[in-house]
Amino acid sequence: MSAPVLVLASSNQGKLRELRELLRGKIEGLDVDTQVIDAATAGAGDVVEDAVTFQGNALKKAREISAATGLVALADDSGISVDVLGGAPGIFSARWSGRHGDDEANIDLLLAQLGDIADEHRSAAFVCAAAVATPDGTAHVELGTMPGKLRTERSGSNGFGYDPIFEPSGSGRSLAEFSAEEKNAVSHRAKAFEALLPQVIEKVNAVLSQR
């Protein structure tokens, strides 16, 4: 088996599959199925996300996981930013209701907070910061956004998080009404990783060339 080169600073298998597909065929000599691994496989623990920006959290995770594993590391941090709330929930998106990962409670609270806000003032955006780092501490981060607005009630059954109440600009549908393929083509995460891809390729190629 080829030795790992790149580690994703997450144990989310969906994210790992997306990363492997993003890199498949783009780097000569890289076997994505064996050389691109998740944090658990690399023996890395969780990183405390205590930075105050998406970029800060992504960079911290990438740097710490790279230092711990000796591999090139990739990380991301994302959430929803509501204009009338001054950018909140932002980095607190996953725990807006006080319980981490409680999507329904998070949506209920956000809808209640915007209950008397007119449609023209419900603009929002999904934001993702993606970062890559090497064991020497060198790192690079890119930001991807998906603009839209918040609906007044849920619609659709696909996706997760705030997808049922977020309507991407010009779509006329909630993100939860998009297929996985449609979402991946326009999402904030896809944009961030695509922008970061040249840096990832450069750093992985540097490692492979030394072997």
UniProtKB/TrEMBL annotation:
Keyword Nucleotide-binding: yes
Cofactor section: Mg(2+)
Enzyme active site: 77
CDD domains assigned: HAM1 (cd00515)
One Pfam family this sequence matches: Ham1p_like
EC code: 3.6.1.66
Domain of life from the UniProt record: Bacteria
Any one Gene Ontology BP term: purine nucleoside triphosphate catabolic process
Keyword Glycoprotein: no
GO molecular function: dITP diphosphatase activity; ITP diphosphatase activity; metal ion binding; nucleotide binding; ribonucleoside triphosphate phosphatase activity; XTP diphosphatase activity
Entry binding sites for Mg(2+): 77
Catalytic activity: XTP + H2O = XMP + diphosphate + H(+); ITP + H2O = IMP + diphosphate + H(+); dITP + H2O = dIMP + diphosphate + H(+)
Assembly and interaction partners: Homodimer.
Protein family (similarity comment): Belongs to the HAM1 NTPase family.
NCBIfam families per record: RdgB/HAM1 family non-canonical purine NTP pyrophosphatase
Protein name: dITP/XTP pyrophosphatase
